[in-house]
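user: At home tonight, take the chain set out below, taking as long as you need, and be ready to discuss the fold:
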Amino acid sequence: MKIVFYRYGSICEPDMIEAFQQVGLEVVEETTEITNKNISPATQLKLVEERIKKEQPLFVFSINFFPVIADVCSIYKTRYLCWTVDSPVPELFSKSITHDTNRIFLFDGGQYEDFVAYNPEHIFHLPLAAASGRFDKVIRTITLQDKQTYGADISFVGSLYSEKDFLQDSSKLTEYTRGFLQALTEATLQIYGDYIAKDAISDKVVAEIKEAFPNFYTPHNPVANSDKYVAAFRYLGYHIAYEERIRTLNLLAKLFPVTLFTRSDTTPLQDVICRPGIRTLDEMPKVFHLSKINLNMTVRPIQTGLPLRIFDILGCGGFLMTNYQAELEELFEIGVDLEAYGSPEELVDKCNYYLTHEEERERIAKKGYETVKEKHTYLSRIKAMVGVME
């Protein structure tokens, strides 16, 4: 049986394609958007329509939610499966979410709670997964030179969110709103495992943010007003991510050797060893495997769920130190599969401990790797997804 996989270039796509093939499905790829990022909704619709007519697929699949794909699948009575890997995904506010041909899988439990009421029989919670088989192939190629190039005491791989933080330029906002947002940022940074800004941001501040930024996202034909969601998650959420990453890296770098691999502007960092961004497929697994401590800082718009980075690090056999998330203990055992912190002070204490307790650190990394390989692979998730559809 065939499926149509609508691709836009997500790093998860090859792993999901392989998993679909492993359950016996033939995957027909629609890849136009990988090279044409300015593709219009009308063109998307036409591409998917042509694929449905030609292939007569069991279903159409995409990573994250595309309203236009949901619409064309509804017209042709073809099931549309999608799986979010990001938050926020404001496109979920489209009325297209209500089609009965949808099977929408959301990786974050908080995201699921926000949207399930709009189509309760066809929206599901499904955590992300690790491509441990692909990682194994890269790890086996590690050389002595790689150990010098990619090894680190504490490493962080990823964006600092400086390029996504529109609130760094807050000159268009009133003094009151700037102060309100800064106070909300400080309060949010004190709490791990809950995104309080989601409910605390006021309608007045939301309206001012929307007016100040002309590219503020508003879905076509919305199922509900999305302004508060977009302001809290995309604008304030990214600003909080930037503040948290800068502060955390600077704090750790005062005490330990910290290496950052990023393409972001590193000007605000002090004492951090800054390295260029690395390739996802063949370099990132080496960093995760060779670092003594791999740091994960979940962006606050991911309310309760676990980002892909957690599964990536564990799937590479790396030792993971992550901020606490509500779903963490549903899938892993803290202190056995990985380590977690609930405050900057606890992060410092645990980094100090694990840098000086090598055997324990390596035992936890090994157990975390075994857990994801046994329970949290793409194949197991795709089986669950196809099972729901059946």
